[in-house]
Write a structure and sequence with these properties.
By secondary structure, the protein is α/β, with parallel strands linked by helices. The strands form two sheets. Strands 9-1-7-6-4-2-8-10 form an eight-stranded mixed β-sheet. A two-stranded parallel sheet has the order 3-5.
């Protein structure tokens, strides 16, 4: 809080309560979107853009400002814990290509070109029921081999209720292989730490797992990401 100033709250006349908001966009708790300039690998960004000068025009062209008009399209939620008959996946567990295709069949939906694919691992529910843990060291996520599914289906955006990457990593010396493959190699925007519990229930009650999905990142020229509150319209 930055206001009201001392003595103003109980004083006569007009005064304002004020505050200041700041956040670490890429933390392990806040729902956020990763821009294409977020992941550096072997000195390059997506498309082979050199990452040496963060202020270069090519680098800034890959910032979150690239989606300044928003993202809207067909969203598809694949609920892997529901498929396995558990409330959540335990930290360290992987979502495989077989899980994704089996979830499609069980839910009667198929992921297609341009879709916003949302994969539930139950991270938020586990945190809500068991309390916080050090997610940077152990969390459920996609196995990097599952990225072949996204490439084959030509997915536009990947969103998860965790980090999308599993910890510990399945790839030696690469802590975030899903981020490298999605953002750096494929040019797919990621959304991390979303909230799927209400959406999963609504989809189950409606008997359908696809919907209009709208994402409105903040207009932050040059930024590597933005807090987001995606909206599913069933």
């Amino acid at each position: 809080m930055t206001g009201p100033a001392p003595g103003e709250a109980g004083a006569e006349g007009l005064h304002f309560a004020l505050d200041r908001f700041a956040m670490n966009v890429h933390g392990d708790a806040d729902s956020h979107l990763d821009a294409l300039n977020h992941v550096l690998y072997d000195g390059e960004l997506h498309g082979g853009v050199p990452a040496v000068d963060a202020t270069a025009a090519e680098v800034r062209s890959l910032s979150v400002d690239l989606v300044r008009e928003g993202i809207a399209g067909r969203g598809v939620l694949l609920d892997v814990p529901r498929l396995r008959g558990v409330p959540w996946l335990e930290p360290g567990d992987h979502v495989t290509t077989e899980d994704l295709t089996a979830a499609e069949e069980a839910q009667g939906v198929r992921v297609g070109p341009g879709d916003l694919l949302l994969v539930r691992v139950g991270h938020r529910r586990r945190r809500g029921e068991l309390g916080a843990w050090e997610a940077a060291r152990a969390r459920a996520g996609l196995h990097p081999e599952a990225m072949g599914f996204l490439a084959e289906r030509e997915v536009a955006v990947l969103g998860g209720d965790g980090n999308n990457d599993t910890a510990p990593s399945a790839v030696a010396d690469v802590a975030f292989p899903v981020h490298v493959l999605a953002v750096h190699a494929m040019g797919v925007h990621l959304m991390d730490y979303l909230q799927f519990e209400e959406l999963a229930g609504a989809c189950a009650r409606a008997g359908r797992w696809s919907f209009l999905c709208v994402v409105a990142p903040l207009r932050l020229p040059g930024a590597t990401g933005s807090p987001v509150n995606p909206i599913a319209v069933l």
